[in-house]
Amino acid sequence: DGGITQSPKYLFRKEGQNVTLSCEQNLNHDAMYWYRQDPGQGLRLIYYSQIVNDFQKGDIAEGYSVSREKKESFPLTVTSAQKNPTAFYLCASTRSPSGTQYFGPGTRLLVL
Amino acid sequence: SQQGEEDPQALSIQEGENATMNCSYKTSINNLQWYRQNSGRGLVHLILIRSNEREKHSGRLRVTLDTSKKSSSLLITASRAADTASYFCATDDSGGSNYKLTFGKGTLLTVNP
């Protein structure tokens, strides 16, 4: 099956800990995205990558980091600098600029 | 800041009725998209309308776009309980990065059986 996967489904973070959320796609898409969604809110862009080994900050990049070493993978690290990390994190990919984005099932991050 | 803003924030209707949601945006766009999100899930693309199109249909969905008013509407006809979800509009910015979409806060649609 072609698609985009995220893991884990739920993630718990302790104070001062960095955690990494996984996002993998086998759609052969060049561009990938990370969004944060808070309850009752829309999506806010954290980082995006148009091509391997390149990425740009979105609207709320502070406290997050990404890498794009492979076309299929775009992991997001939530660092200890992100003071309010509790949210639903969504990864997406697209084949073309301004085109349809395909979303993964999401990871819910909770703070212990 | 949010590019797209949906209206209303929440809508509750009976099965079989039509549901209309509106979206307003601020900048010039290449296209506007509508997505659906079931509770706790990822978003699913519904329909894309280009800036030179005024209306588009897909099954029970009808989308209109008025670029002069910077607004769009999504009509779901003959609604079903399974249509219960949040609906988001998303726009690009023709003057900025074509790879970025900006999402509104969504309309929560509840269809009562």
Give the tags.
heterodimer; A: 112 residues; mainly beta; 7-stranded mixed sheet; 4-stranded antiparallel sheet; 11 strands; globular; B: 113 residues; 6-stranded mixed sheet; 5-stranded antiparallel sheet; 0% helix
Largest sheet entry of chain A: 7 strands, mixed
**Termini gap of chain A:** 35 Å
Largest sheet of chain B: 6 strands, mixed
Mean pLDDT score of chain A? 94
Structural class, from secondary structure content of chain A?
mainly beta
Determine the number of helices of chain B (DSSP H or I, runs of at least 4 residues). 0
Overall pLDDT of chain B: 93
Number of extended strands of chain A: 11
Low-confidence stretches of chain A: none
Percentage beta strand of chain B: over 45%
Beta strand % of chain A:
over 45%
Q: Could you please describe the fold and organization of this structure?
A:
The complex is a heterodimer of chains A (112) and B (113). Chain A is mainly beta and 112 residues long. Chain A has no helices and eleven strands. Chain A starts with a strand and ends with a strand. Chain B is mostly beta strands and 113 residues long. In chain B, the strands form two sheets. In chain B, strands 2, 4, 5, 9, 10 and 11 form a six-stranded mixed sheet that branches. Chain B has a five-stranded antiparallel sheet with strand order 1-3-8-7-6, with no helix packed on it. Chain B is globular and about 45 Å long. The chains are: A mainly beta (112), B mainly beta (113). The interface between A and B is medium-sized, with 27 and 25 residues.
